[in-house]
Design brief:
This protein has helices spanning 2-13, 52-60, 73-82, 108-114, 180-194, 217-225, 232-255, 335-343, 359-363, 423-440, 478-482; strands spanning 27-33, 62-68, 118-123, 142-145, 166-169, 172-175, 200-205, 262-268, 311-314, 324-331, 374-377, 390-393, 397-400, 404-407, 450-452, 460-463, 491-495, 499-506, 520-525, 528-533, 541-547, 558-566, 572-573, 577-584. It is of the alpha+beta class. It has three domains: 2-363, Alkaline Phosphatase, subunit A (3-Layer(aba) Sandwich), CATH 3.40.720.10; 374-443, Arylsulfatase, C-terminal domain (2-Layer Sandwich), CATH 3.30.1120; 450-584, Jelly Rolls. The strands form four sheets. It has a ten-stranded mixed sheet with strand order 6-5-4-3-7-1-8-9-2-10, sandwiched between helices. Helix 5 packs parallel to helix 7 and helix 6 crosses helix 7. The chain is globular. Residues 1-22 have low confidence and may be disordered.
């Protein structure tokens, strides 16, 4: 059966070469780490960090040496999985309801699953924690994920600490044993072994080495002993653990006889979070200052250090490998169209793509990639702001924030602004940005909603991580919640079906319940609201509403959802956790 599927896919894609035997469609293993930068690999010149398995993959792969992503994690993931600029997909922040991938987007997993692939996601998702936005509702048939943008964030299982945690298997909490990175690799390996007889897509997205920095002493101690300052020593230890797990993965693919026809991609989601040592004024310089491969800026920056990252691609059966460099300007938006071509995918519907296929360049064809202009920006705000932390990129030029211009051929460290010397280049790049910005504007005022009343998640579990709120009000980390701040915000929800709804307001999730220390509770959805007096020692407050749903659906069913908890002193805060249970029509 797999052979027949292979023939159909290869013929449809025109991938058969004269005189070459037909092969099965390639498997795809895509590993993406969190906050590891270009300089956080020994093969890239880091003389302290040891990454032997990454170095091996580097030596066997085609390396995209001028490869760019967004400066932060959720935007990169949305662009990677859709082939479209992140802002188009509704994602331009990591919190505040702006990290949720619009339900109208078609993901790489959707496309692969429609062509007969088994699809699995393991680790970090960060594109929505509620129906219909979770990984197992976006084309992945299997998913083991933590919540939010990192372990210990508010949507994650309350009390997780990287060791022996609870993660969500297709949305259902499950207890696991072991360190987070080990668990996610274990689950990925089990998925590969279960599906080795058919084409599969394994999307392995580690939360490491993202903050909070935590790893067993055996991994970080060698770097402490080498004079690497904290927290960089622990950060390096987390990468060393990832590297060890990558070795396990590559070895298992080898032992299963899958290496030749498996496309392996390694990349990271933004620039390094710890590429340079933190030195406070008056402190002596550390023995190891860090390594950022000569780039300016770290994670979050509009300079190359914030968004130029490693990307290694290996597929021996497809002629992709051999330790070659491709130095053309490329980006995360190119991975999906590249895999569409390499895998001969049948599904081609969905919104227009921004990326281009790199298949010919990866195979070493002589035709160069045409000169192109790419864009990235960091919009960690409720509504995007023009020119905010932006980079307009060509192979030679970088326009930063619409004002600074850098000649990358002469100045890869972006030290000398040459805008005054090249006014025509400045003007051309500004015009390109203006056109790009105009194309994004239709989504700025939209809100990706969380569904309530959806049978796939009843109750829907909302958290303050997804509040639309002023800076400082959003509940990001579980430690924020433990301080019970007087904070509040608004959720945007979509009413999946009309009927009765029960709203249970909490200051902690049910399994970690604590007293609300409030005397009244209020909930409001659109223009409908309910209020109730409550016992200060109660751990939850439940209110009910009957909600209608417009027959036209879509935006007509979108409403704001707000909560208020008021204590005896008149202090008001929102419910950090709300369970919304559909009851009946």
């Amino acid at each position: 059966m797999r052979h027949l599927l292979a023939v159909g896919l290869l013929l449809a894609a025109g991938l058969c070469q004269t005189g070459a035997a037909l092969a099965a469609p390639p498997n795809v293993v895509l590993v993406i780490t969190d906050d590891q930068g270009y300089g956080d690999i020994s093969a890239h010149g880091n003389t302290v960090l040891r990454t032997p398995h990454l170095d091996r993959l580097h030596g066997e792969s085609v390396r995209l040496t001028d490869f760019h992503v967004d400066p932060t994690c959720a935007p990169t993931r949305s662009a990677l999985l859709t082939g479209r600029y992140s802002t188009r997909t509704g994602v331009w922040h990591t919190i505040m309801g702006r990290s949720m991938l619009s339900a109208s987007e078609v993901t790489l997993a959707d496309r692969l699953a429609a062509s007969g692939y088994r699809t699995g996601q393991f680790g970090k998702w960060h594109l929505g924690d509620n129906a219909p936005l979770r990984a197992h509702e976006r084309g992945f048939q299997e998913s083991v994920a933590h919540g939010g943008g990192g372990i210990t964030q508010v949507p994650d299982w309350f009390g997780n600490d990287y060791f022996d945690d609870v993660y969500f298997r297709n949305g259902v909490p499950e207890q696991f044993t072991g360190y987070c990175t080990d668990v996610f690799f274990d689950e990925a390996l089990a998925f590969i072994e279960r599906n080795q007889e058919r084409p599969f897509f394994c999307y392995l997205a580690t939360n490491a080495p993202h903050f909070p920095y935590t790893v067993a002493d055996e991994w970080k101690q060698p770097y402490v002993d080498a004079g690497v300052p904290e927290p960089m020593a622990t950060f390096y230890g987390m990468i060393a653990n990832i590297d060890n797990n990558l070795g396990r993965l590559l070895d298992r693919i080898d032992s299963l006889g899958l290496s030749d026809n498996t496309i392996v991609i390694f990349m990271t989601d933004n620039g390094s979070a710890e590429g340079l040592a933190r030195v406070r004024p008056g402190e002596p310089a550390p023995a190891w200052p860090g390594f950022n491969a000569g780039m300016r800026g770290l994670k979050g920056s509009e300079y190359d250090g914030g968004h130029r990252v490693p990307c290694f691609i290996r597929w021996p059966a497809g002629g992709i490998g051999g330790g070659r460099d491709v130095d053309a300007l490329t980006a995360h938006i190119d991975i999906l169209p590249t895999l569409v071509e390499l895998c001969g995918l049948e599904r081609t519907d969905g919104p227009p793509l921004d990326g281009m296929s790199l298949a010919a360049a990866l195979r070493g064809d002589d035709a160069p990639i045409d000169e192109r202009t790419l864009f990235v920006h960091s919009q960690r705000v409720e509504f995007p702001e023009k020119w905010r932390q932006s980079a307009v990129m060509t192979k030679r030029w970088r326009l930063i924030n619409g004002r600074e211009l850098f000649d990358m051929a002469a100045d890869p460290g972006q030290a000398v602004d040459v805008a005054a010397e090249y006014p025509n280049v400045l003007a051309t790049l500004r015009e390109s940005y203006d056109a790009w910005w105009t194309s994004l504007e239709p989504v700025f005022s939209d809100h990706v909603p969380i569904a309530i009343g959806d049978p796939r998640e009843n109750p829907a579990r909302l958290t303050g991580h997804d509040w639309h709120a002023p800076p400082g009000q959003v509940m990001v980390m579980q430690d924020n919640v433990r301080n019970d701040p007087l904070a509040n915000g608004t959720w945007w929800v979509e009413i999946a079906r009309p009927g009765g709804y029960r709203f249970t307001l909490r200051s902690r999730p049910e399994h970690a319940a604590e007293a609300l220390r409030a005397t009244s509770a209020r909930v409001k959805v659109g223009e409908q609201e309910a209020t109730a007096a409550i016992d200060p020692d109660a751990t939850s407050a439940t209110l009910t509403l009957v909600l209608d749903a417009d027959a036209a659906g879509g935006a007509f069913n979108r409403r704001t959802l707000d909560t208020w908890l008021t204590n005896a002193n008149g202090d008001v805060r929102g419910a950090y956790f709300v369970d919304v249970h559909y009851v009946e029509e």
